[in-house]
Amino acid sequence: EQIEKGGYEHFMLKEIFEQPKSVHDTMRGRLLVDEGIIKMAGIWDHVEKFKNANRIIIIACGTSWHAGLIGEYLIEEYARIPVEVEYASEFRYRNPIITDKDVVIAISQSGETADTMAALKLAKEKGAFIYGICNVVDSSIARITDAGSYTHAGPEIGVASTKAFTAQLTILTLIAFKLGKHNGNLGNAEFMSLIAELDAMPKKIEEVLSSTHELTQNIAKDFVKATNFLYLGRGYNYPAALEGALKLKEISYIHAEGYPAAEMKHGPIALIDENMPIVIIAPRKGHYDKIVSNVQEIKARKGKIIAVVNKGDRQVSEMADYVIEIPETSECFSPIVASVPLQLLAYYIAVYRGANVDQPRNLAKSVTVE
Ligand code: G6P
């Protein structure tokens, strides 16, 4: 096992550090930057299905569901196809309206999650075209779907998903750009600049890993005794906030809630005092001014602010107690870079609390029962 961990103390840490490679592997052979092409047979062979779809319904559980939410933002922004995202467990039992004009995408690292599988079967029975985004090759979900794209993240052992999540975001980004280009919503110049940026993501993740590794350890030390955490973000980073909170609760057993920053005033603001740590994801691109005013509201209530911002940020950083810098990207890529320090922060808080990081209590890597 020590050998498999490759010198890291836990699989989770190893997997966090593998992300430059896993994102790269997920794009390999698909993203041909010089030719300006995204090659995805699963999409291309059925492109008319996607193009003519009434809507795309994304179903998933857990971390994969968070990736799905970001997928909704991506596909709606770039391909202009309506998307709905549902928890597989809700979808399967609520007699949903599905027709043969719908495309249903299941996202699942393991490809074995019982609820996701059952939801897919239901969609198939009702005539929808079903597509899989799985990490495990030849898994049950990969086998029953009409088509799909594998994330090539490699085996993920830590129960809390890290590299599978960023690989799922990579696939969803490729799908959104490919469909957008095909149906004319994404112009050539923008397409070319976005794919060049996507191609550079492994490097950016590398940068974030080295610039935030020590910093997140130091921040973690101050929150070992925390009992609650709030995670806030807007736009693409709202699901990133949900995922940051999920990581923390899964492995450290600290109660954590993710929220869209603007919803704070409808509830969570009542919880803010000097004992409440708040992680706020505030990159420059993406409603920055609005976030500044959310941070002012937190500051006025003495919340402890851990801000994830772009290099050189001033306004939010001046109000924050802790600042984590990430490189600037187009908004749609910011969840990929923002998630990395949040994974590290959750990891170190859990380690300092003495928790079993790779196998948290009560959780399973693959939930094959209801
Ligand atoms: C479990 C795992 C999570 C995962 C979820 C969905 O809860 O602990 O890490 O996100 O299942 O799993 P899937 O394999 O379908 O992505």
Automatic annotation (TrEMBL):
One of its GO terms (molecular function) is glutamine-fructose-6-phosphate transaminase (isomerizing) activity. Its EC number is 2.6.1.16. It is found in: Cytoplasm. Residues 46-185, 219-360 form the SIS domain. It comes from the Bacteria. The active site is at K365. Keywords: Aminotransferase, Cytoplasm, Glutamine amidotransferase, Repeat, Transferase. The keyword Cytoplasm applies. The keyword Transcription regulation does not apply. It catalyses: D-fructose 6-phosphate + L-glutamine = D-glucosamine 6-phosphate + L-glutamate. It is an enzyme of class 2 (transferase). Homodimer. Catalyzes the first step in hexosamine metabolism, converting fructose-6P into glucosamine-6P using glutamine as a nitrogen source. This is Glutamine--fructose-6-phosphate aminotransferase [isomerizing]. The chain holds residues 248 to 617 of 617 of the full protein.
